[in-house]
């Protein structure tokens, strides 16, 4: 039967290209054995359409079929009039082959319904092809050249054809051309939107007990609580909105902060830890300024005894205190060509969340900020930032990360590996890259998830893929952390009868070609059990492919452990 992959991510272009070519050959051969002549290029075009829609070549619904025939083929595939009838034939062959191999996934429509939809949508295909305004610009010219017998891979023939069109010697639908040109000019002239981000991966969130323990052990939260209680009924501030020096020294002594600054401090600004704490507490709405005095916010009093709620408010406040990190308010809000640290904070959180708890280099964040700045300015401008601006920006990012680590939202580490240094240097575009790596802690992952949900973003949790096709789950989980993948596979198995889960897994293993996908399927099968064999596993059937030099890995008793 052979091994064929049917689910692809947007970045799996080479893998898809190889699988498409193999599928096309097999579908054409399958059809010809049944006396059906199929155009290979149209089979490939149908696969390209599905790859562009969702990357799932074995997932077909009636809506997918209708869209392919009524919209996608007329818009993007140049066809001669005598080739029109070959399009539904190609789709029938594709659906028939997938059904015959049992490769239509579990969420697809039944094959007879898909074939019926091909027949029902064929008139819409012809209607759309009859109106050349439905083409895109490239397809329009492709159709004209096919109609006039132009050899499209011959530049001289194409040039002669375009000259004849320009002189009015050839008959083309100029009103349709004008409409297509106007439509595409409008599309091109629109302001480019923000780059689309890939769907967020499922995450495994900590339980309430783990959240409570993390919040209770947070040094930053303990300081904020003590500072808020110290303020109580009120503390006088000077005209600049700063604590009086005596008060600042007193609270620094009480909280055991700013050890090296207390004696030499001339103003409260010379106590950086207390200054940060003041701004953090104000941004989190634990304290506020009233008639020249710093007072405790009334609603904050009960929150001081609710660690998780207080922790979350402190976390959300971090993005608003950027200009007070490291005393940088002396220089104004830290920025890199207008990108403030507070504005860049969501970029950092998104990268950390996508990593799912795995560490990423801080230089990756710096690189992303530079790319955003360049897009905003419409050219490469980040290299023009002066050395002072670069140093201030990096210093304040370091202070931001230190605050997040103090809160317990992230874990910081450093890589001293030479290979890592070379990669970081290339990423940073400088010889002295920041060696810091940063990862969200479990409570940090939970907090970012809460922020995403509150802002209306779909942030999936483990278990939401339980009704999906197993190959789709394995492809997505191949990039996930091991504990997330195991939890997702356990939820997938638990969502269906053990025998049904095992049968679906066995069908997938019969054609799965990626070692990582096979490994995940085997782990799921170890939970479900092999059909008809009870608790014992059929070791022969469970051996992964040894293709591409992969070692054989047998599923023994150890593999059954969750």
In summary, what is this structure?
With 562 residues, this protein is mainly alpha-helical. It has 5 domains: 118 residues, no CATH class; 49 residues, no CATH class; 113 residues; 112 residues, no CATH class; 91 residues. It has 23 helices and 8 strands.
Summarize the helices and strands and which ones pair or pack.
Elements: H1 13-33, H2 40-53, H3 62-76, H4 86-100, H5 111-130, H6 137-147, H7 155-166, H8 174-189, H9 208-216, H10 219-231, E1 235-236, H11 245-255, H12 272-283, E2 287-290, E3 293-296, H13 300-303, H14 307-317, E4 335-336, E5 339-340, H15 341-355, E6 360-361, H16 362-377, H17 387-407, E7 410-414, H18 418-428, E8 436-440, H19 442-454, H20 470-477, H21 482-494, H22 498-509, H23 515-528
Antiparallel strand pairs: 1-3, 2-3, 4-5, 6-8, 7-8
